[in-house]
């Protein structure tokens, strides 16, 4: 059942929406180069919080709230990432200057669970991690993560913050071990199976599963629980899990023969 009337205010295509953690605010962004904040304290009669954010000079493709709901991130066609303090959503305040590490359109931004790190990704096929310890002065963390052979359309942190997933038009999902932010590395081999562009990835709340959605009209679920993987591998190998088999199935983990 639809709640009230459609929210109107954008003058062109809307590309991204995000709820604040408390559910009281909705952010929307689109081709009209604006970000709009909506007051959802009465979901049946939502209203705009103040004026649209018009800092961008081009289409805005992605918006995301920090876990504490106080910071909003937005990014788009101009390749820049912008941050606002939205502690008072009626009076958002820009944090520092727009920043960029891509030189091309940014299609996705995601906060780590502790809110101290932001990931951005886009047209250049790379992921940049940003230290937001001082949100007014974001600092790039190391070199961009590379490996995708095309545009990256979606990034997502696992609930424990130790893994980052990314996906795009090379039809693969990649996992990155970001437990050491100074030295992030690829975790295992790319996840393959989709035959079209992967537009979105998301972790389940417990982090055990990853979902990917593609233009091939399918959604795939990936089991991220090592115990489940070991059980399946032991069964598939008749309880003989060799070192070679381990390297093939779970190269990101140190070998330990767990089959009975």
Describe the structure.
The termini are far apart. 7% of the residues lie in helices and 38% in strands. Strand 2 and strand 3 (35-39) form a beta hairpin. The mean pLDDT is 91. It has helices spanning 226-236, 243-249, and strands at residues 14-19, 25-30, 35-39, 47-48, 60-65, 71-76, 81-85, 93-94, 106-111, 117-122, 126-131, 139-146, 152-157, 163-168, 173-177, 185-186, 198-203, 209-214, 219-223. It has a four-stranded antiparallel sheet, with no helix packed on it. The chain is mainly beta and 260 residues long. It folds into two domains: 14-225, Methylamine Dehydrogenase, Chain H (7 Propeller), CATH 2.130.10.10; 226-260, no CATH class.
Short synopsis of the structure:
The chain is mainly β and about 260 residues long.
Main attributes of the structure:
2 helices, Methylamine Dehydrogenase, Chain H, mainly beta, 260 residues, 2 domains
Order of helices and strands: EEEEEEEEEEEEEEEEEEEHH
Largest sheet: 4 strands, antiparallel
- Overall pLDDT score: 91
CATH architecture of the largest domain: 7 Propeller
Tally of helical runs: 2
Question: For this structure, what is the CATH homologous superfamily of the largest domain?
Answer: YVTN repeat-like/Quinoprotein amine dehydrogenase
Low-confidence stretches: none
User: How do the strands of the widest beta sheet line up side by side?
Assistant: 1-2-3-4
The amount of helix comes to: under 10%
Using the coordinates above, name the CATH class of the largest domain: Mainly Beta
Structural class: mainly beta
If you consult CATH, what is the topology of the largest domain?
Methylamine Dehydrogenase, Chain H
Q: Measured on Cα atoms, how large is the radius of gyration?
A: 20 Å
Relative strand content: 35-45%
Distance between the termini: 52 Å
């Amino acid at each position: 059942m639809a709640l009230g009337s459609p929210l109107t205010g954008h003058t062109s295509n809307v590309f991204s929406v995000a709820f604040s953690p408390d559910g009281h605010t909705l952010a929307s962004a689109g081709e009209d180069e604006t970000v709009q904040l909506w007051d959802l304290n009465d979901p049946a009669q939502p209203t705009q919080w103040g004026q649209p954010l018009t800092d961008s000079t081009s289409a805005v493709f992605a918006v995301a709230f920090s876990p504490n709901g106080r910071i909003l991130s937005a990014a788009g066609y101009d390749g820049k990432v912008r941050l606002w303090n939205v502690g008072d959503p009626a009076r958002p305040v820009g944090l520092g200057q727009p920043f960029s590490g891509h030189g091309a359109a940014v299609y996705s931004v995601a906060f780590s669970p502790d809110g101290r790190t932001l990931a951005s990704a886009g047209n250049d096929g790379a992921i940049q991690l940003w230290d937001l310890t001082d949100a007014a002065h974001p600092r790039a963390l190391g070199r961009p993560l590379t490996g995708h052979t095309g545009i990256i359309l979606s990034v997502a942190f696992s609930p424990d913050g130790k893994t980052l997933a990314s996906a795009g038009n090379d039809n693969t999902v990649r996992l990155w071990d970001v437990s050491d932010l100074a030295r992030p590395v690829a975790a295992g081999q790319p996840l393959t199976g989709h035959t079209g562009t992967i537009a979105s990835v998301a972790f389940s709340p417990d982090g055990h599963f990853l979902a990917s959605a593609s233009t091939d009209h399918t959604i795939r679920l990936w089991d991220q629980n090592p115990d489940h993987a070991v059980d399946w591998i032991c069964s598939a190998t008749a309880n003989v899990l060799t070192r070679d088999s381990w390297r093939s199935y779970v190269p990101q983990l140190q070998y330990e023969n767990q089959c009975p």
